[in-house]
Amino acid sequence: MNIRELLTSLFLLEDSDLKYSVLIVEDDKTVNELIADFFQNAGFVTTQVYTGIEAINVLDENYFDVVLLDVMIPGTDGFTVCKYIRQHKDTPIIFITARESEEDKLQGFALGADDYITKPFSYSVLVAKAENLIKRSLGNVIGSNILSACGIEINTVSRNVTIDGELIELRPKEYEFLHYLMTNKNKAIPKDKLIIDLWGYDFEGDERAPDKQITNLRKKLKHKAKCIKTVFKVGYMFEDL
User: Fold this and answer.
1) What is the mean pLDDT of the chain?
2) I want to staple 71 with a disulfide (CB 3.0 to 4.6 A). Which of 96, 97, 110, 198 is the partner?
3) 163 in the same domain as 46
C-alpha cells in the first residue's frame, strides 16, 4: 500500500485535499495537450509522454493514479506497455485509441486495461471515467459493503445477492465466481487464472470446472446472464451493461 492509499484508508486526508496524478501516453501532440488541459482544469497533476519507451521509463520512476494509453504509439506499442504495467503495478489503465475493432478491445481488456475508449471521445467524460476508476482503486468509498453492477448487487458481509432488488440463491462457489468477476468487471479473465485464484495452485480437478460454474451461474442470473461474456480462446468477462 502506498502513502496515498494508507492516508485515504485512515481518513487522514479528505478527497478534496488529494491531487491525482495522470500519465498521458499519446503521440499526437495536439490530442495530448487537449487531454492534459482538461485534466489540469479538473485538478490533476499531468505527465505527458509520446512513445512507449518513454512511458515505461517514467513508470519505473514515478507513481501515477491512472494511465491514459494510446495503442498506436511509436516503437513499443500501447498493448506492450499495458502488459508491462500489469506485470509490475495495479495502476488503473484507460486505452484511448482509434482502433475500434472488437478484437482490439478484447485484447486490451485481456491485457488488464480497465476501460477502452475509441476516438473521437468526450474529454469531460474521459476525466469523469478516470476519477471514478481512481476512487474505486484507492477505496475512497470506504465502509461500503455493496458491490453493484449490471443491476446485480452483492452484499459482501451477508453474501446476499440480488437482481433488481430480488434475492437469488447461489451456492458458495457460484458466489465466489460472481464476486470475482464483478470485482474485475470489464476485464477478460483467462480460465487458468480463474482456476488458480478460486481453487488454488494445487487444483487437480476437471479443467472445465470454470465452464461448469459459469453455466450454473448464468442459469441463476436469468436475464442478467448476458452480463457474463465468453471471451473466445481466453475465458470470461463480466461486462457492466
Assistant:
1) 84
2) 97
3) no
Same domain assignment for residues 120 and 197: no
The reported pTM is 0.55
pLDDT tens for each residue of 1-47: 444 544 444 434 444 445 688 999 999 999 999 999 999 999 899 99
CB atoms within 10 A of CB 159: 12
Do 92 and 8 reside in the same domain of the chain?
A: yes
Domain boundary among 81, 105, 138: 138
The phi, psi pair for 179, rounded to 5°, reads -60, -45
50 or 111, higher pLDDT: 50
- The cell numbers describing 92, all together, are 488503473
Residue 168 sits in which domain range? 146-238
3-state secondary structure of 121: coil
Average pLDDT over residues 206-212: 87
- Containing H/E element for 191? helix 191-199
221 and 105 in one domain?
no
Amino acid at 122: S
The gap from C-alpha 8 to its chain's centroid, in whole angstroms, comes to 20
Name the percent of the chain lying above pLDDT 90.
Answer: 39
DSSP-based three-state secondary structure for 161: strand
Q: Hey, what's the cell of 68?
A: 491514459
Q: How far apart are CA 235 and CA 198, in angstroms?
A: 14
All 3 cell numbers of residue 205? 480437478
CA atoms of 184 and 25, how far apart (whole Å)? 24
Q: How far is CA 239 from CA 8, 98, 186, in A?
A: 28, 21, 5
Peptide bond into 92 cis (omega under 30): no
